[in-house]
Design brief:
With about 200 residues, this protein is an alpha+beta fold. The protein folds into two domains: about 1-55, no CATH class; about 70-195, no CATH class. The protein is built from four helices and ten strands; from the N terminus they run ααββββββαββββα. The strands form three sheets. It has a four-stranded antiparallel β-sheet, with helices on one face. The chain is elongated. The two termini are about 45 Å apart.
């Protein structure tokens, strides 16, 4: 990626000089910016990889070997039956999990209630607009907040936040956050059932 960036910068300078005029300047500037963007992206990915590597080493030092994870939301060690959530400061045993609840725009569904599947499958990801819309006369196509509260037997509440701003449910960002929430819920169910 850095090599591509350098090539872009060199091409930008050559085009700027060789073509001259406004079109040469525009094309040259475009190539320059693309080259700089490639180099910046490479450095950013390197920092992210380094940060993730350092976190994995820290977690291993704390007795957690990551065997399953959902992005930067939750990390699981199924071999030693441990788990942690962002910011990964406390590592729990599977049996520390008491219960959890998904909260979407204030609507709660708990892991101990029998309405969880209905809310997760319907109210959260599709029917929410229809249900709320039926009472207000219009369909709701946005979500303002989505998080999971995870309660431990030690009395702690760990919050895993997926959405903390207004987002349209038709966007790719929402679809990604929705998938992350579903995968996190599945991992929490697996921990709870192995408890």
């Amino acid at each position: 990626m850095v090599a591509l960036g350098v090539i872009g910068i060199v091409m930008g300078i050559i085009c700027w000089i060789a073509m001259g005029g406004v079109s040469g300047a525009i094309f040259g500037l475009f190539c320059l910016l693309m080259g700089i963007g490639c180099i910046a992206a490479e450095k950013s990915m390197g920092r992210e990889y380094e940060r993730d590597s350092k976190l994995r080493v820290k977690l291993m030092d704390d007795g957690l070997t990551v065997t399953n994870e959902v992005g930067s939301y939750i990390k699981i060690d199924s071999l030693h039956k441990k788990w942690t959530v962002y910011p990964f400061t406390v590592i729990y045993n599977y049996n520390d999990l008491n219960h959890f609840e998904l909260v979407v725009d204030g609507e709660k569904a708990t892991s101990t209630g029998n309405t969880l599947n209905a809310i997760v499958g319907g109210v959260l990801f599709g029917v929410a607009g229809a249900v709320v819309g039926a009472t207000s006369g219009k369909t709701v196509n946005t979500i303002n907040s989505m998080y999971i509260n995870v309660y431990t037997k030690q009395g702690r509440c760990e919050r895993i936040t997926f959405i903390s701003y207004t987002i349209d449910k038709s966007t790719q960002i929402f679809q990604t956050k929705k998938r992350n929430a579903e995968e996190t819920m599945a991992l929490l169910y697996a921990i709870k059932s192995d408890n």
